[in-house]
Amino acid sequence: MLAGLASTIPAAAAVAVEPARLYITTELLAPSSMMEGGRVVGIATDKVREAMRRSGVDYRIEVLPWKRAYHAALTRGDACVYSTTRTPEREALFKWVGPTDIAQWVMLGRADRKLRLRSLADARGLRIGTYNGDAREAWLRSRGFTLDSTSNDLSNLNKLMAGRIDLWAASMRSDSNVLARFGYQKQVVPLLVFNEIGVYLACNRAVPDELIGRLNGAFADMARDGTGRRIERSYEGWEPAPGPAGPRGRPEF
């Protein structure tokens, strides 16, 4: 019996020291996450990879449509998803790591229409293009705005230019120049920043608190030592592939 017990100790010890492994999902959302040479890169991606490295966490990243990526983190005990907007409605659904970035929610409109929005109240009665399943859509819908939802956020650009919607509720980094990069800076203009909010790596509630703490500690260290800002600067010269979306994914407006 003792011999049999002894034979189980190495196996139990091996399980105890096995490194944590996470299944991480994201969508193609340049410049936060895009494909280059068969590998996922981007501002948020590089920050997540660095946090995993510093925390000694094994992981794999898979690119999926947003709804599937989000659903995986809700239902798999080893899963996390980025870049996820942290809203009060989502707070209890996940354990949060980050932020990976700060996003501005912006109402975009056609320059030739010369719309003026002094506040969000001025958008009432206008048709707003949103992205199905996105936090902006849920936020605006809960406040009674008139929405026209799509399963592909970039199609809102075509709908805006065709006059099928009046406004596009987009997410932009504060230093974004993506409208100019895609040649729309004279056709599409920001009219109102209506919210500023953090985006995070959102992990399933089953991910251990100790691991979440290590990852948040890594993000805090990256902010203190300048690594996060260095990653952001490394993408300042990023240029999208030709076309509205290109193989790297839809642009993060």
Descriptive notes:
There is one protein chain. This protein is α/β, with parallel strands linked by helices and 253 residues long. It folds into two domains: 19-101 and 199-239 and 246-251, D-Maltodextrin-Binding Protein, domain 2 (3-Layer(aba) Sandwich), CATH 3.40.190; 103-197, Periplasmic binding protein-like II (D-Maltodextrin-Binding Protein, domain 2, 3-Layer(aba) Sandwich), CATH 3.40.190.10. The chain is built from eight helices and twelve strands. The strands form three sheets. An eight-stranded mixed β-sheet has the order 5-1-6-11-7-10-8-9, sandwiched between helices. Helix 2 crosses helix 7. The longest helix is centred in the C-terminal third of the chain and has 17 residues, at 209-225. It starts with a helix and ends with a strand. The model is unreliable at 9-16 and 242-253 (pLDDT under 50).
Short description:
Residues 29-235 form the Solute-binding protein family 3/N-terminal domain. The chain has 253 residues and is α/β, with parallel strands linked by helices. The protein has helices at 2-17, 43-55, 66-75, 135-142, 155-161, 178-181, 209-225, 227-234; strands spanning 21-26, 29-30, 34-36, 39-41, 58-63, 79-85, 95-110, 128-131, 147-150, 167-173, 188-203, 250-251.
